[in-house]
Design brief:
CATH superfamily of the largest domain in chain B: P-loop containing nucleotide triphosphate hydrolases
Helix content of chain B: 25-40%
CATH architecture of the largest domain in chain B: 3-Layer(aba) Sandwich
Number of helices of chain B: 13
Largest interface: A-B, 30 and 36 residues
Shape of chain A: globular
Oligomer: heterodimer
Number of strands of chain A: 0
CATH class of the largest domain in chain B: Alpha Beta
CATH topology of chain A: ABC transporter involved in vitamin B12 uptake, BtuC
CATH topology of the largest domain in chain B: Rossmann fold
Number of domains of chain B: 2
Largest sheet of chain B: 8 strands, mixed
Structural class of chain A: mainly alpha
CATH class of chain A: Mainly Alpha
Distance between the termini of chain B: 83 Å
Strand content of chain A: under 5%
Radius of gyration of chain B: 31 Å
Chain lengths: 350, 490
Amino acid sequence: MQKQYIRTYLNNKLLAYVTVAAFLLCAMLMGISIGTVSIHPTTIIRVIGAEIFPFVSFDNTDSMHANIIMNIRLPRVLLAGLVGASLAIAGAAFQGLLRNPLADPYTIGVSSGASLGAVLTLFFGLSIPFAGMFTLPLFSILFALLTIFAVLLFARNIERSMKVETIILTGIIFSSFLGALISLMIALTGEELRQIIGWLLGSVSMRGWAYINIILPFFVIGAVLLLVNSKELNAMSFGEDKARHIGVDVQKRKMMVLIAGSILTGAAVAVSGTVGFVGLVIPHLTRMLWGTDHRHLLPLSIMVGAGFLIIADLVSRTIIAPAELPIGVITALIGAPVFGVILMKRRNKL
Amino acid sequence: MLKVQQITGGYAGAPVVKNISFEVEKGELFGILGPNGSGKTTILKMLSGILPHTSGDIVIKGKNLSEYTPKELAKIMAVLPQHSSQAFAYTVKETVSLGRYAHQKGWFQSWSGKDEEAVNRVMEQTGISRFQDADIQQLSGGERQRVFLAQALAQEPEILLLDEPTNHLDLSYQKELLDLLSVWSKDCGLTVISIFHDLNLAGLYCDRLLLLENGEVNINHVPNEVLKEGRIREVYRTKIEKLPHPRVAAPQMVLVPERSQAESLLEKRIDPASMEVKEDLLVLRSPLPLKTMSSGVTGSGTGWNRIFLNRHVSKNYDCSDHRSEMAEFVREIGFEPGETVGMMTAVYIEDYSSRLYEEDTFSVYVVVTAGVGNAVDASKSDEHSYHLTPGTINTWIFVNGYLTEAAFIQSIMTATEAKTRALFDQNVNDAVTGTIATGTSTDSILIAATQQGESLEYAGTITPLGKVIGKGVYECTVEAIKKSQSRIKG
């Protein structure tokens, strides 16, 4: 009875969106406010307000605070948010498509593929004409896409029904192999790419607005592609045959979801390295609270993912201040145990 | 409605389905049967467009299957697979609502009042409305199957494809589901094409059956033509026998298990040693269940029984509720009414007569108790008023052999003729008409056979079995009449 009540209560979707939006807003304010110099939330609102509405006069905007907010903390928070949002929605989509609650860009090896793409670009100094700063994310996306097709093809060859565990195992095989390739390249280059190691563990520090410009268009394209396919994801989460019976053009929709997921993962990896488990934990948590319906799961995951990574980033830069932990360490510390719990729950059910 | 023309195909490698053609009319309930691996599911997958066929055509409503877009097809055809996977927690209503996918239009595919109405209607029809907010992962197998049926029906299809829909459902849900399908096909013109594992259910509900064998059509006909013993035995390669359904004109097939101790059972037979004579009770305990056809008070009709009772009751026995009184009596003396044929007689039990007749390949043991107090001439029986009195000529015939149904019936005829002749020879008269009696007013008969060993197809008067029964019943009846009459005279 109690459980039923809680469920109907939470089923109120409007409430879900309000809660999640409030969470995201709080996370952003905290992310901007806390640091070596702490900034009062009202100052933050005033500074950002002044930036957005330059003609309205806000009094008392201290230029030092404005500088810290606009040039250091806000871009960092936004980048963390965009990366978190991208990974979370990509994870939710992969899970629905593959009917696999353990799938996320990291566990199925797509992140590693994107990393390899990025490292290759740096290693060979590749550049696509006219793509400019988008060369790196484009290569990441391309490799993310190649990796996911390779993983799926490989898993299907092992076993036609592609059990949850098979896909994860395949992901681990690919991750290890691609990781080895990356290590090999780093070893070959000597000092110059050593900095990549820090980047590979995932970080959103000192990136600035340029990186936001890189990820934003890909985030918008990927997210929109997934959101218009949310009903199809619902159908495909019952199996491809079932989706086909209901009237979904499975081949086309599946391709759209895979491409969108790769775009989101590739772009996120290009700006922040491999941040693991966000795509696993966030959709799982969101599903637990508000159900599986992808029409709501996807937008809610975007916001929860963004808020989560902003907080994870906050923790990573404050917990052992003045030193900084890579953000990937924090997400893995939270994500790996959750992964274990989900796996155990699945085993108990079978 | 749906036409399949010479389709061939299957998975990579050898084709599973070879050159199959059939047609299904609107409103038909069409069953697909066949042993494992005969291509049933493959055909269904081809019909639903999941599996491509290498040659031939599938035409639905005059249009080739390949010309339909997935959405167009989903509006005409819905599929209920054998297993539906559910990796995530959806509510029942969310699951059923997915069935409306093909009907929603536009970029945003908004939910219309018509969608809501259709979803509520099918949930009502399948009886799942009351748990519409429950998580499908928490439902029982039967409930879940109904949710997916509702999802398929929410598509408002004209054709419904089902793959063994009754699998995993318990008996009452099997019946409920098939009754529903039957009603929808007859009343709403829904065309149902379903794979069946259970031949009997298929026979009961389908208008037509397609029997597959190794990916080819064995026969496509009405159930009575398809479900023939010889054909099913050959296709399924197993021992099977056909029975009539007691209420519906539909064939029912039953499996015949292989007996591992067949030889030891063969040694068991009915002979005088099985018989026990008590003061007012004749008991025959069979070492094995016998197939019986009888008119006893308990265990009447056809069945399998191992205890046979002939009970003496007084002439004043109250016959108003003799069946339950007899069942009570059987229980009291330690037998199960469910495996007992019980008869009553007013005759003294010690006046019974029995004989064993040994033939080369079979033997017959006849037991008769005969009193002729209310003898009747059957040809003039309309002169008698009707009242039940305990049976007076009870005839038991045990055959160590296999009898066909025809042999059972002819055994009864032969035994009756022999009994009549015995009465004639003993000059037993009908007290009312004054003519020679043909029997008494409440005679009972039992034919029981071990159903092992020699197969005895007929039991007419000049067949080997008929000859023994005729002779045996005549001799025993004459002797039993003499015994009871001498007691009366004495």
